[in-house]
Amino acid sequence: MTFQSLQYHEKDGVATIVLNRPETFNALSIQMGWELLDALKRCAERKDVRAVVITGVGQAFSSGGDIRGMRDALEGDVLAFFLKLTKSVHDAILAIRELPKPVVASINGVTAGGGLGIAMACDLRIASDAAKFNTAYLNIAASPDCGTSYFLTKSLGHFKATELFLLPRNIDAAEALQLGLVHRVAPAKELAQATYELAARLASGPTVAIGRTKQLLNSALQSDLAAQLNQEGWSIAQSGTTEDFREGIEAFLAKRASRFTGR
Description:
By secondary structure, this protein is of the alpha/beta class. It has 2 domains: about 5-205, Alpha-Beta Complex (2-enoyl-CoA Hydratase, Chain A, domain 1), CATH 3.90.226.10; about 205-255, Lyase 2-enoyl-coa Hydratase, Chain  A, domain 2. The protein has helices at about 30-45, 65-75, 80-100, 115-120, 150-155, 160-165, 175-180, 190-205, 205-220, 225-240, 245-255, and strands at about 5-10, 15-20, 50-55, 60, 105, 110, 125-130, 130-135, 170, 185. A 6-stranded mixed sheet has the order 1-2-3-5-7-10, with helices on both faces. The protein is globular, with a radius of gyration of 19 Å. The two termini are about 25 Å apart.
């Protein structure tokens, strides 16, 4: 499969997806949305992929929706344009959340609008100290998309999310770390290595158990306690049937490091 707006490569069990429209600061297009979805499907299907990194080329992770594309859409059916754009990117965001493998956002620069939604959909976020974050929607009289209203409300609370949407501003990496938007900040020159080390650690972990943990965390956002306890019971019982669980138990009792294979 050939991608036009992405780069894709695999190494040591880690698939890296690079948003690749540097001339637009990796702005989201309909094509990019579908290609991102296709790349994530590839990650799901390939058993030797055990962790995924999403990042951007150049000075941006993603600046959000393609403003020039929006301007062109004003001359035609703007409603159809936005429905196609959001369908493509929203399907990719759901694929990130549903992928039974860990996904890391390596945030190398500007992250705004829908780009922020993609970053927040990832399981972990590591940012360059040069990264900037902005909801940005109201700057062009647009309302939120790409799950930003969901992720920011869930992670920051209703009132802080309201502030960031109604009073959009640049948030630097240090403040993003303080708010919990990212879990780690690295110097710009060290971001690639720090990302690789994090992804490699995840890729060497118990992949099936990680996938089940993601599933439980997703369901916890809307389950009651009884339903969550029931799902946890079934999940840990199924985990007990894996090769990695047996390895984990034997390694613990032998007081040695586990050697997980993802099975």
